[in-house]
Design goal:
Length: about 575
């Protein structure tokens, strides 16, 4: 089943990508309305939109998912229910494709709900307490997005149709559409894990690594960004950019800082995804929707490869994810380390890799735009933090001393895992330039002063040095002592957001429930409620029963006495 799914997804992605290029070259779009049935003059219609954006994104989703499924043949080989796993992944991909080609809020909700429900099933796949907690946090955060979309669907009734693409030119003075846009922004923030909904993204790392590669590259977390790209005209009309820009920059800064103090390999890469999502949201809020979409595609390539390499390491290291137990992996797994370094360098914006073409252009646009100093510092400082945690990860896992078991051996011999990584490696190297020529056929020429042109290079080199220094944890501990430990715990726990999203949200309702249970169900409510009525009726029954029992005994005694009297009278006469 794995090989068949890989084959069909790969072929279909190739066909859809060719069609997307054709639609892009000729600026062609197809809008399909399919009437499902008609009842009393009311039609139930399913609508689809096929333009260059939806087709190219759909092809990327299917290409990455095909390689992830092929990769899973080795990674999930010990699982007896691998067919169930593949079916869940295919349902996940289908929900994302359905969301991509939907210009209608109803069908967007169907795809969104499909993503939320299947992601819950995948996060709890390993079935332990940690997975259940992570799955519940993921499902509830995404359920908030469902609620926002449901409310926006009800408000769209003011316009007579749920196809939002019809109303781009008729919304200038509409209060209803401004409210709908605000709801869509909040829904996208939940899916893309922006502050204050960020805690579910690292928690979702409880899922199997192939699922993480799919979720963090092109499916669940990018659904919110894609929805905002589709709603971009409304964002510009209602001037919502300042709010999104601030949220995106804060998320980017928080996750980049947290990744520098994290020791779980998958969580570091998850926080890196969160940082890139903040970058996309930030550049989208400035009005550059095509540039945000371009970075969405390039990020999908190198992030899927990064997770695949991490999965290969975890698989070989007997399921150990702590980077402190790694080291010198480059001597044992050269192919995995090559792919890992290429994807990390692409994440940092190494020239001529996929990430460079989008990230460098985004930073140039930030320098060019009218933004305040705070946003400017956030962008460049976060770029330096990206280089910092990437170099720290490289130092701990690939280059440092080997801290794993002395008798344990690992290698690069698994064919399916290697094939999946190589399939993405080639696209990660060459895909960025190819996509930039396609999406921007007329190249941007951004002329900046020399100090701004070299700013990116400077913060990346400084970030690498900071990553090397921060790897020596003892040095920092001796330097800052307990104050630094508080800073590490504050930054490494995403500004205590997981605690705020779980304990502090549920503590008061649970306490109220406990007090209510104690006071009502086990207290006065119990006395005057069920148990009170039960005791009262028992007393009544016993009293009435005793009355009847007494009557019967009196009746019997009277009967015996009268019988005795009659008998005596009979004897006398």
């Amino acid at each position: 089943m794995c090989s068949l799914s890989f084959f069909f997804l790969f072929l279909f992605s190739t066909f859809v990508f060719s069609l997307g290029i054709y639609y892009l070259m000729f600026d062609y779009s197809v809008f399909i309305e399919w009437e499902l049935f008609s009842l009393n003059g009311s039609m139930v219609v399913m609508t689809f939109i096929f333009d260059w954006m939806s087709l190219i994104f759909m092809s990327f989703v299917m290409y990455i998912s095909s390689l992830v499924i092929y990769y899973s043949i080795d990674y999930m080989s010990g699982d007896k229910n691998i067919n169930r796993f593949i079916m869940l992944v295919l349902m996940f991909v289908f929900s994302m494709v359905f969301l991509i080609i939907s210009p209608n809020l109803i069908s967007i909700l169907l795809g969104w709900d499909g993503l939320g429900l299947v992601s819950y099933c995948l996060v709890i796949y390993y079935q332990n307490v940690k997975s259940y907690n992570a799955g519940m946090l993921t499902a509830l955060c995404n359920r908030l997005g469902d609620v926002f979309i449901l409310i926006s669907i009800s408000w769209m009734l003011n316009f007579g149709s749920w196809n939002y693409v019809y109303y781009y030119n008729f919304i200038v003075d509409s209060f209803e559409m401004s409210f709908i846009t605000m709801l869509i922004i909040f829904a996208s923030m939940t899916s893309s894990a922006q502050i204050p909904f960020s805690s579910w993204l690292p928690a979702a790392m409880a899922a199997p690594t192939p699922v993480s590669a799919l979720v963090h590259s092109s499916t669940l977390v990018t659904a919110g960004v894609y929805l905002l790209i589709r709603f971009n005209p409304m964002l510009m009309v209602y001037d919502c950019g300042w709010f999104l820009l601030l949220i995106g920059c804060m998320t980017m800064f928080m996750s980049g800082l947290g990744a520098n103090f994290e020791f779980d390999l998958k969580k570091i890469i998850a926080l890196s995804t969160l940082s890139q999502l903040g970058l996309m949201i930030g550049v989208l809020s400035m009005g550059y929707s095509n540039l945000a979409f371009f970075h969405l595609l390039t990020h999908a390539l190198f992030k899927a490869l990064l997770f695949m390499c991490a999965g290969s390491m975890i698989h070989n290291l007997n399921d150990s994810q702590d980077i402190r137990f790694m080291g010198s992996i480059i001597n044992f797994m050269p192919l995995t380390c090559i792919c890992f370094n290429v994807s990390s360098l692409s994440l940092c914006g190494m020239p001529f890799l996929a990430g460079f073409y989008s990230k460098d252009l985004i930073l140039d646009v930030v320098c060019l735009n009218w933004i305040n100093v705070l946003i400017f510092v956030f962008y460049f400082f976060s770029t330096g933090l990206t280089a910092s945690y990437s170099f720290r990860l490289f130092y701990y896992s690939l280059f440092g001393d080997n801290n794993f078991y002395t008798y344990y051996s690992f290698n690069d011999n698994s064919y399916y895992i290697s094939f999946g990584m190589i399939g993405l490696l080639l696209i990660t190297v060459f895909g960025g330039s190819f996509l930039s020529w396609l999406i921007f056929p007329v190249p941007y020429l951004i002329v900046l002063p020399w100090y701004l042109s070299f700013m990116t290079l400077f913060v990346v080199i400084l970030g690498c040095y900071f990553g090397y220094v921060i790897s020596d944890f003892d040095y920092f501990y001796n330097l800052f002592s307990l104050k630094f430990l508080f800073f590490v715990s504050f930054s490494g726990s995403m500004w205590f957001m997981p605690f705020l999203s779980t304990n502090y949200v549920v503590y008061s309702p649970l306490l109220f429930g406990y007090k209510s249970l104690k006071s009502f169900d086990y207290g006065w409510g119990e006395l005057f409620g069920g148990q009170g009525f039960y005791s009262f009726f028992l007393y009544l029954i016993n009293y009435v029963q005793s009355f009847f029992d007494s009557n019967f005994s009196v009746y019997l005694l009277t009967f015996v006495i009268w019988m005795f009297i009659l008998f005596m009278l009979f004897l006398i006469y």
